[in-house]
Structure formats: C-alpha cells, structure tokens
Design goal:
This protein is of the alpha+beta class. It contains eight helices and ten strands. Strands 1, 2, 3, 4, 5, 6, 7, 8, 9 and 10 form a ten-stranded antiparallel sheet that branches. The protein is globular, with a radius of gyration of 20 Å. The relative contact order is 0.19. The N terminus and C terminus are likely disordered.
Length: 329
C-alpha cells in the first residue's frame, strides 16, 4: 500500500525536523521573463509558449532545515540544488501563477514511491546516534538496484562544490507530454542549461561564507549581470522508458544516432523578489501545476505522489503563518 500524503511528508521531514518545507527550505526568489522559442509553439499549444511571460524563480538547496541552530543552512555543504520557475500568464491574478517547472541538479530520481520511502527511512537520523546509518543505507540499496543508481548519483553530487546557482544545469527528471494544436503528442524531459556554465569544483577558497551561493546570485541581480538559462526538451529513443526516472535517457534512435533536443525558450532573471516571504517562500511550487498543452505522464508514480505531498506541505506551512487577507500598502 502506498503511503498517504501526510505520512510521506512526515517521513521526508524526519530527516530535519523542519516545519517550513520538507525539503528545499533554504532558497532565494527572483523575478524574470521567459521568452519562448518558435519551435516551442510547434510542439505545444500551451500559453507559456505563445509569447514572453513574467516568471518568479527560486534557487534552493535540498536540505529541509531553514533556521535550526544546530543545523544552520550552509551553502558550503555539497548538495542537490533546485531551480523552480513559476509562470504568471496575463490575466492570472493568483500569486501561485499558472504553471510551475521544478528542476534539480540531480539528473535522476526514484522510480516508485516505495523506493523513495525506503531511502527516506535509511537516511533519517538514528534516534540513538543522531546520524544516518550509511552502512544500512548501502545494504538496502544493494537489494534495490534502481534505487542504488539514484544514490550513487546523489553521492557524486555530494563530492563536489558549486561555484554559483547561475552556472548549473537543472534537470526536470519527469516525462511530460507536450500537445500541439493539431493534437500531436510529444514526450519530453526538460532541462535548463546556463548561459555561463560553471562546473563543480573539488574545493572552495578559504574564507568562503556559509551563504556564498545566495550572496553570489544577489550580486548578479544587483549589478545587472542577472542569470540566464535556455530551456531544452530531450526526446526519448526506442530504448528509453518514459516512467523510468532512475535512468537518464540516451535520446538515441534505433540506429544509434542522437535525437536532437528541442530548444523551447530562454529565461532571464534580473531582480530579486522584493518580499522574499510573501512573494516567494509562502508560494507553493508544484510540478503538476500545468496549463493546457502540457501534461504529466500517467504512469509516473512519483509525480502523482509529489502533487498531493506538495499540497500537504503548503497547507501545513500556511497554517503556521497564513497569508493575510490583505497585504499592507
């Protein structure tokens, strides 16, 4: 039996004891504009591909503790970084926007909720020692080979440091279906490629501050440099499984030739969100908030679980600090 949404959120939160966000609690919000490519409109009738769209972006670290004294947020800890983009279509006055795209630096994820749940139980701190049992995790992973691929990818990320949010590649991981005006369906997985790539490094300079990633992106916004990313859509080959999140696609045809990705557009981020709480942290970024012309793959267990789990997390967060009926002038 699959866990109910509250149970799944509880198990994620058990790693950190946080009530703000179960994961990706440490983040920073930005404003920008998404400009679709001409090719995007041929694949999907979605309104976000019809013309420039204002967006709210949020860079984050995967940890779930925002302010615990014993576990202070520290960008110097190698981590899975996240990039969420919220599209605000014309006429939509809802601060939650019309559509969300959520991506991370890890290029794979667990295929089933049970595998994800098993992973969570093995990375939760031991009640006696206060630290996770790494040996127990790897023993479990060896009996779950698809989960092991995800864990090995995660460990690789943990071995390197990121110079800047603005220089990372972010993967959407899930398969989405893009439907054209004539009904043609195209399956794809999206990724954001930075305008100025900055590969991970093995070490950081001495004296690097604990919030160096947030400082860096703040400086880029304030000095006019900004941050830009191209949205690419990768397409599956005959051997690529749409619902296999643990294996990145080869995107190769039957004869072995590469299947070229489609350029879907470009996002340019140029300013910090003025009110980091109400205009970013209080918002819910949900990968299943979509517009007509884009849909989830019906066989994807994880994205179905994310939809309800994100709703639970947002309900808990706003119950602690609800949005006022009218914001002050």
């Amino acid at each position: 039996m699959e866990p109910v949404p509250d149970q799944l959120v509880d198990e994620v939160s058990a790693q950190y004891g946080a009530a703000h966000r179960a994961v990706h609690a440490v983040g920073i919000g930005l404003r920008g504009t998404f400009a679709p490519s001409p090719e995007a409109a041929t694949l999907s009738s979605a309104a976000i591909f019809a013309g420039p769209v204002p967006v709210t972006g949020r860079f984050s670290n995967s940890v779930g503790f925002p302010v615990l004294p014993q576990l202070q947020p520290d960008d110097r800890h190698p981590d899975v970084r996240g990039f969420a983009v919220k599209f605000h279509l014309p006429g939509d006055d809802d601060p939650e926007g019309s559509m969300d795209m959520i991506a991370m630096t890890l290029d794979r994820f667990f295929d089933t909720v049970s595998d994800f749940q098993g992973f969570l139980r093995h990375v939760a701190p031991d009640p006696h020692t206060g630290i996770p049992d790494k040996n127990g995790l790897m023993a479990w992973a060896r009996t779950h080979p698809l989960a092991l691929e995800v864990i090995l990818g995660y460990q690789k990320i943990q071995s390197m440091h990121d110079p800047s949010y603005a220089g990372l590649v972010f993967h959407g991981v899930h398969t989405f279906h893009y439907t054209a005006a004539d009904g043609t369906d195209t399956a794809g997985r999206f990724r954001w490629e930075p305008d100025t790539p900055e590969p991970p490094v093995t070490s950081l300079p001495a004296g690097t501050p604990p919030d160096y990633l947030r400082r860096d992106i703040t400086h880029r916004m304030r000095d006019g440099e900004g941050a830009g990313f191209t949205l690419w859509l990768d397409h599956p080959g005959p051997d690529d499984q749409l619902d296999r999140l643990s294996a990145p696609w080869t995107s190769k045809a039957a004869d072995g030739t590469p299947i070229p990705p489609t350029r879907m557009g470009h996002v340019q981020l140029g300013a910090l969100v003025a009110d980091q709480y109400w205009d970013c942290e209080a918002l819910a970024f949900n990968p299943t908030r979509l517009v007509e012309g884009v849909s989830v793959d019906p066989h994807d267990q994880i994205i179905a679980a994310r939809r309800v789990a994100y709703d639970v997390g947002h309900t808990r967060r706003t119950a602690i600090r609800p949005r006022p009926s009218r914001l002050p002038n």
